[in-house]
Amino acid sequence: MDKFFWAFIIGGTICVIGQLLMDVMKLTPAHTMCTLVVIGAILGGLGLYDQLVKFAGAGASVPISSFGNQLVKGALEEAEQNGLIGVLTGIFHITSAGISSAIIFGFLAALIFRPKG
Question: Where is the chain membrane-spanning (predicted)?
Answer without folding.
Answer: 6-25, 32-49, 91-113
